[in-house]
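FW: tagging you since you asked about this chain on Friday. Here's the raw sequence from the shared folder, copied in full. Didn't touch anything.
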Amino acid sequence: MRGEFLGVQSLLMAEVFEPLFEFIEENEIEVEDLWLDILQSALPRPMPPVAPTYQSYNDDGELHLPEDLEARSTYEAALERHQAKLETYMDASTDDGLARDYIRNFFDGAPSEHAIVEALEKAFPPFDDASGDQLSNAYFVAVQSFIEKFSLRYDVRRPSFNRRMAIYPTLPGLFTKMLRDLRISSAQDAALAALMAAFEETIRDLHDERLPRRVKQCIAAQFNLLEAMLSQHPNILAYNADMENRIPQGRRANTFGAMCDKAGVWPHNKVREAAKAIYGFASDYPGIRHGGNPASQLREVDLRDLLSISVILTGLSPYLSPSMDPEKIYLG
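HL: got it, structure written out here
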């Protein structure tokens, strides 16, 4: 389990919503069209696809380029699918039973983690409007119990200062999402994917032998990954291209430290210097990236160093990879 709603979203109806309607019946709470209210308040209306921009028309005002014709065909197919979804949504918006089925299908096929979280947050007001604290408290407890039952990495907060119920990611949840996004980002490039696989292999190798040699291999493998990732950053590619085109050629940024100086991604010089300082440790400590300087070694590395440095380096990854989306990591 990933600690997210995705993966257990098909259980939301049975674990959260349907017990609430049983609670309504048992306590003889009078509600009317509550499924409709939830649908209209919490679920998004299907959005039409974005129309493409075509490159060229012939003298008769018709598309003629193969890529334009393909774009139009793709758009028309997407528009047809949208129309079908919109009709289903409109039908559900007029019948409480159809609304319930629509909500079930929405959660079963939710497009993203954020869509689920947002729908659960927005579903609070309909329960509150229907029967005040009695029903809204029951809904809050149901969502909270679901999160606890499935060990989801979220906290749920009651409404305050005219704000709706809120579901916040926890720090463990953010780190898990960031690590997964790092894996997804690396998978987009064969070389990065190989380095990511090598890093994960060194982590697995520690299971049988938690020796200093294996800890050094883990740290080195993660640095290899992040250094390769930073080398593909658009700012670094542009800088190195500019250096190559100069006469005489300028000095390219090839090391992690040099690329940190040219990346232009840091909020403050001290953050940049912290990244370079960790790199300096890996370069200076004997047996990690190079022979190093034995006189600089204060003690042998152990699992403390693996855990701490791996967390620090993972935390730097959103700076180093433009393909990682911080907002998506936070919101899901």
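FW: The chain is about 65% helix and 0% strand.
HL: agreed, and The CA atoms of residues 71 and 145 lie 46 Å apart.
FW: great, closing this out.
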